Fold this sequence. Notes:
This protein has 2 domains: about 1-105, no CATH class; about 110-260, Protein Transport Mog1p, Chain A. It has 6 helices and 10 strands. It has helices at about 1-25, 30-65, 70-105, 165-175, 175-190, 250-255; strands spanning about 110-115, 120-125, 130-135, 140-150, 155-165, 195-205, 205-215, 220-230, 235-245, 260. By secondary structure, the protein is α+β, with helices and mostly antiparallel strands. It starts with a helix and ends with a strand. A hairpin with a 6-residue loop joins strand 1 (about 110-115) and strand 2. Strands 3-4-5-9-8-7-6 form a 7-stranded antiparallel sheet, with helices on both faces. A 3-stranded antiparallel sheet has the order 1-2-10.
Amino acid sequence: MRLRYFYLGIIVASLGVSLFMGAKEGLFAQDIWVVAIPSALGRTLALVGLPAIVIGLLALGFRVFKKKLATLTHMGVYSLIWAMLVLSSLIVSSYESGLRAGSQASLGATPYVYSPDGCEYTVTFPGMPRLANGFQPGMGDYVQAQYENVGRAGGYYFVRAECIAIGKEIAARMNNKDILKQQIVAYAVSNGVQNAEYGYEEDGLGKHVHVRGFKTIDGVPVTFAAKMYVGSRSFASLAAGGPSASYPRQGVYEFFRSLKRK
Length: 262
């Protein structure tokens, strides 16, 4: 009975550690059910399973000598291994964060805050993006910003933002779940996204929809993700992508997570 409660506590603690590390790494910035939750469950399984394997081998050794592993010894050894795994995971995570920050500083990358006139949203790019003027029928003019992480720390990926000042009347019309879904579906189709998965949310940033899917560019499988937000007087869309083998990069998480409402 004591071991049952012990393992229940270990599972809860492991899940808490996994969620904390996921939040620290930005895994909850997007695709919670596709990326964040599976990652947290995988970490939890590793934290619970690895000490259990060691304990199993230790118990087997005791049986060879016709002895029984005492419950307190069982829990003590398990707790020690578990604590060492948690500590090492936190140290590695902190080291990687510092390494990313140091790499960015050594490259002289200066973050760029995208916030065009009339837009009630801001989003931060890891460096100076390429700016281009655009026009969306039924909405108006906008400035598109796109940044490609090429030849820098963190591997290749791209991030893009567009924000249009649409006025309160159009914003009120677009502030509708079905209309937003139509917009994101049309966006995904126009960008050649396949096997698309869609979602809808409401929070402090307003109503928003998102899509995640795949496409092939020059023979390379690429993962593509986008989000669309409607506020009280503006409409914003964010997009990101990169080779599926290494997607999503940390820079993508940080980009999506940086979106704020003025």
